[in-house]
């Protein structure tokens, strides 16, 4: 992406999505779980005198009598904290088909540190995997396209470049300055940069202010401990052969406009007060629209899930069909990242338990496309339940037994599935009584 100084300045008309602050917050609102949304709106109500938020206790007011009878303790299930590795692993399995390139991406995940940086050189990758330069470049590119933006970078400069590249609201020169003039930029030699690109130094200051909003550690947020509790945002009820899906009130907090206060403030005839009130009214309207869109998106994704996984709700074995984020995204006409934000941390309440929406997304495993990760976990659970507790099955032995059943997966995958099921390693399952 070399800059050519010989080019003259010229105007150019292009179409580009402007990622305004409100649009960024709309995306963030979709990503919030029920507790996060409640905290966000409470903070907004403190900042906006025209906004009041009403929540219904337990989010059950819009449910039928039989649905209300679900014990309150179900809403107090701790929400498990997700590591960066698990978050990236989920995205890989739910967005990429089972190919050698995906295997190489999975290999790279092992070398992503807690801050989100890739800590292995191309030469080491080639030595350990036998991959050629093109394959390595493709795998790293796929890794760096995952969420959060900036993950998979080898250094701070590359991380900032990735974050800038993924943000349509970035200043026009931000990417090229970070790429070509990073040292001068961080050393504040802004006069040199401004002269090079024939722009005012204020534009370089604007780029600096923008870069300050980026994070030098894109993966650090995943190491923070969370003490959230599950608050289902969708509830499904079986009615004969049909499934009825509804939003709970957790997904539909009532935003109340303080009309009387607004009218009273307008009567002051103070220009600054009038402008302030109009600004806060616009913010209220935007919040109400964004929260409504969030609920509608969750409902649409939920409806597609129960349609695809219909048998799960009627068969006591709870079988799941292979389903990828892109499958739902394509059907709904949205981006995969929208579906990812929608299912992460959002829960569905059924008559037989509460499930995170991403539970219903499973990739096909091994050579049998009909086998989902969930069904393989069930087979794994059955094998361990039937093992000799004095001689428990090792992960490698489990790989062999699954292979005999027609499921080909790696030892590491078995270990990850076992850990996700809360099953200890064979050495800790051994009994001596």
Textual characterization of the structure:
GO terms for molecular function: DNA binding; DNA-binding transcription activator activity; nucleotidyltransferase activity; sigma factor activity. This is RNA polymerase sigma-54 factor. Belongs to the sigma-54 factor family. The longest helix is centred in the last third of the chain and has 38 residues. The chain has 433 residues and is α+β, with helices and mostly antiparallel strands. β5 and β6 form a beta hairpin. The strands form 3 sheets. It has a 4-stranded mixed sheet, with helices on one face. It has a two-stranded antiparallel sheet with strand order 1-4. The chain is built from 20 helices and 8 strands. It folds into 3 domains: 148 residues, no CATH class; 138 residues, no CATH class; 65 residues, Arc Repressor Mutant, subunit A, CATH 1.10.10.
Structural class: alpha+beta
Question: Any idea what the shape is?
Answer: flat
| Percent strand | 5-15%
Seen as an oligomer or otherwise, the chain set is: single chain
Helix content: 40-55%
Radius of gyration: 26 Å
When the domains are counted, the total is 3
Termini gap: 68 Å
**Average of per-residue pLDDT values:** 81
Q: What's the total helix number?
A: 20
Biggest pleated sheet = 4 strands, mixed
Query: Main sheet: which strands, in order across?
Result: 3-2-5-6
How are helices and strands ordered from N to C?
HHEHHHHHHHHHHEEEHHHHEEEEHHHH
Number of strands: 8
**Low-confidence segments:** 1-8, 14-19, 57-80, 365-371
């Amino acid at each position: 992406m070399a800059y050519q100084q010989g080019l003259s300045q010229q105007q150019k008309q292009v179409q580009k999505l402007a990622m305004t602050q409100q649009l960024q917050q709309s995306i963030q609102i979709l990503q919030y779980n029920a507790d996060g949304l409640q905290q966000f709106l409470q903070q907004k109500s403190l900042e906006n005198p025209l906004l009041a938020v009403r929540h219904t206790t337990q989010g059950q007011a819009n449910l039928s009598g039989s649905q209300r009878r679900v014990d309150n303790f179900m809403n107090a299930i701790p929400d498990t904290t997700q590591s960066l590795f698990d978050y990236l692993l989920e995205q890989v399995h739910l967005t990429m088909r089972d190919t050698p390139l995906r295997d190489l991406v999975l290999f790279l995940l092992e070398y992503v540190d807690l801050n989100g940086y890739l800590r292995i050189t191309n030469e080491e990758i080639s030595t350990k995997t036998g991959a050629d330069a093109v394959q390595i470049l493709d795998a790293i590119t796929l890794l760096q396209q995952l969420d959060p933006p900036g993950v998979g970078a080898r250094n701070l400069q590359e991380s900032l470049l990735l974050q800038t590249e993924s943000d349509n609201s970035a200043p026009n020169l931000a990417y090229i300055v970070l790429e070509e003039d990073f040292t001068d930029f961080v050393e504040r030699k802004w006069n040199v940069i401004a002269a090079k690109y024939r722009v005012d130094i204020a534009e370089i200051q604007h780029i600096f202010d923008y870069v300050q909003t980026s994070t030098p550690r894109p993966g650090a947020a995943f190491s923070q401990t969370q003490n959230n509790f599950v608050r289902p945002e969708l509830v499904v009820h079986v009615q004969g052969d049909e499934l009825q899906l509804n939003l709970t009130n957790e997904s539909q907090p009532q935003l109340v406009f303080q009309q009387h206060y607004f009218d009273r403030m307008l009567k002051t005839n103070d220009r600054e007060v009038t402008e302030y009130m109009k600004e806060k009214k616009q913010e209220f309207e935007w919040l109400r629209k964004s929260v409504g869109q969030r609920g509608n998106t969750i409902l649409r994704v939920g409806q597609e899930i129960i349609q695809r996984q219909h048998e799960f709700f009627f068969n006591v074995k709870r079988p799941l069909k292979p389903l990828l984020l892109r499958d739902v995204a394509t059907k709904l006409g949205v981006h995969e990242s929208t579906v990812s934000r929608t299912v992460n941390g959002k829960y569905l309440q059924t008559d037989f338990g509460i499930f995170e929406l991403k539970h219903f997304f499973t990739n096909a495993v091994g050579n049998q496309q009909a086998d989902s990760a969930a069904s393989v976990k069930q087979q794994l659970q059955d094998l361990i339940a039937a093992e000799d507790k004095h001689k428990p099955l090792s992960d490698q032995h489990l790989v062999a037994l699954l292979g005999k059943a027609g499921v080909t997966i790696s030892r590491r995958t078995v270990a990850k599935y076992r850990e996700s099921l809360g099953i200890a390693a064979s050495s800790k399952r051994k009994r001596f009584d």
